[in-house]
Predict the 3D structure of the following.
Amino acid sequence: MIPQLIIGISGGSGSGKTFFANQLTQHFSKHQIGQVSLDNYYLPLDAQVKDEQGVKNFDLPDAIDHHRLCSDLIKLTSGKSIEMKEYQFNQKEVAAKTLIIQPSPVIIVEGLFTFYYPQLSKLLDLKVFLEAPEGVMLKRRIARDSHHRGYGLNEVMYQFEKHALPAYKKYILPLKNEANLLISDQYGFDKSLALICDEIKQHLKIVSRQ
């Protein structure tokens, strides 16, 4: 069995998790590194919890099918590929892609609650937490959700203030001290990317000797 390095990336909505993970994967080939996003494990719409105003809250740990996520990660670590549909958020007109992730020496897991679920947390070898000011996270969420996901500005503001920010403070921020590496992206990711790339390269050297 190939030894694997599982890297977990967590942080608030709009902190740069997906961007950072994408930057990491671009430094390596597809057979060296795989990427798993918690976004693709959202439960169906009819299973999402509604707030007191009847609005579905996607910023709760219960919004994610973490049991299937953990099962899939265990499959990857045992040398089996996994398959899932890419979550489309509010883009109903876009056909969901089927994603097939092959087992590889390095697996990146990124999402809001990557550190939250005990079973998932135990699978992580390296934990990375991304921090960003609330104003920056809101600005990015507006750009992403209103421009790319089809949400109205009022809807984005409501979800951030009523759902995303409270969830960040309650479920995500308290776990940042579990991280092996704490990153503030206000001045760029270059140094942190280089550190993790070095860690991955060292792991790949070990794998190559197996």
Remarks:
- The chain has six helices and seven strands.
- The radius of gyration is 17 Å.
